[in-house]
Amino acid sequence: MRNILIDTGFWIALYDPEKDPRNHPTAQKLSKKIINERIIIPFPTLYEFVNSRFSRKNSVKAFQEMLTRPNVVKLSDSVYKEIALEQFFIKHKYDYKDLSLVDEIIKLIIKDKDVVVDHIVSFDNAILNEAIAYGKRTLD
What we know:
Layout: E1 3-6, H1 8-15, H2 24-34, E2 38-42, H3 43-50, H4 57-67, E3 72-75, H5 81-93, H6 101-111, E4 119-121, H7 125-133, E5 137-138
Helix pairs in contact: 1-2, 1-3, 5-6, 6-7
């Protein structure tokens, strides 16, 4: 069983296709590939996704069912959040574009040698570049 780290964009594309129609077919295909894998979901991505006007009842039920499967790990951000916040403000000083505190946390998880991540599922180029830099593979 592979350990698959999932970013927010995947959930938006999969469960809210009107919001992300371009990535919806890819998310559907990937969801079939990861069904029997260990899925790692950082809690901040849950906050970000659920707060993104995710309200269609059928999708909410399907998402809830997915979250309760035994192969799903909801990863706490407690060891990452302070460092991520500091990095966010440092990068802001240097006028980085498209800063996200959630992305900073995911990047720290990618770097964390204590969290086994075999593949990354994300539609965010900054996260994918970080993953590649640390020897993680994207799931196609």
